[in-house]
């Protein structure tokens, strides 16, 4: 189930999306740089997040991921994998 939740609620999640500086080159038709195979950090390492930040959360079994809306709005698209296959996250 996908939904936008406050970052405060995401504290229980296992990981937060971190965009690495080596983002791939944008496709010529896209006005942004999409992120492919993102790297994740633990909630305790995500000191750049505040309780007012929004995230899109995904939970599959015991694996939880949070994609911060602020990062998604800069990149437009994140292509990731779930246990059931490839997924695309957008804001």
Characterize the structure shown.
The chain is mainly β and 91 residues long. The chain has one domain (3-90). The chain is built from one helix and eight strands, in the order E-E-E-E-E-E-H-E-E. It has one helix at residues 69-75; strands at residues 3-6, 15-18, 35-36, 39-41, 54-60, 63-68, 77-82, 85-90. Strands 1-5-6-2-4 form a five-stranded mixed sheet. The relative contact order is 0.28. Residues 9-23 have low confidence and may be disordered.
| Binned strand content | 35-45%
Query: What's the SSE pattern?
Result: EEEEEEHEE
Percent of residues in helices? under 10%
What value does the Rg take, in angstroms?
13 Å
Strand order of the largest sheet: 1-5-6-2-4
Helix/strand/pairing category: mainly beta
Shape descriptor: globular
Low-confidence region ranges: 9-23
Q: Estimate nothing, just give the exact number of structural domains.
A: 1
Estimate the mean pLDDT confidence: 74
Question: What's the N-to-C terminus distance?
Answer: 15 Å
Number of helices in the DSSP assignment = 1
Q: What multimeric state do the chains show? A: single chain
Write the layout of secondary structure elements.
Elements: E1 3-6, E2 15-18, E3 35-36, E4 39-41, E5 54-60, E6 63-68, H1 69-75, E7 77-82, E8 85-90
Parallel strand pairs: 2-6, 3-7
Antiparallel strand pairs: 1-5, 2-4, 5-6, 7-8
């Amino acid at each position: 189930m996908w939904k936008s939740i406050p970052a405060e609620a995401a504290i229980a999640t296992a990981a937060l999306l971190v965009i690495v500086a080596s983002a791939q080159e944008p496709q010529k038709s896209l006005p942004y740089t999409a992120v492919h195979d993102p790297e994740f950090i633990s909630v305790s390492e995500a000191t750049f997040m505040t309780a007012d930040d929004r995230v899109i959360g995904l939970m599959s079994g015991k694996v939880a991921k949070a994609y911060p809306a602020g990062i998604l709005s800069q990149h437009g698209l994140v292509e990731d994998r779930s246990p059931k296959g490839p997924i695309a996250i957008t804001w």
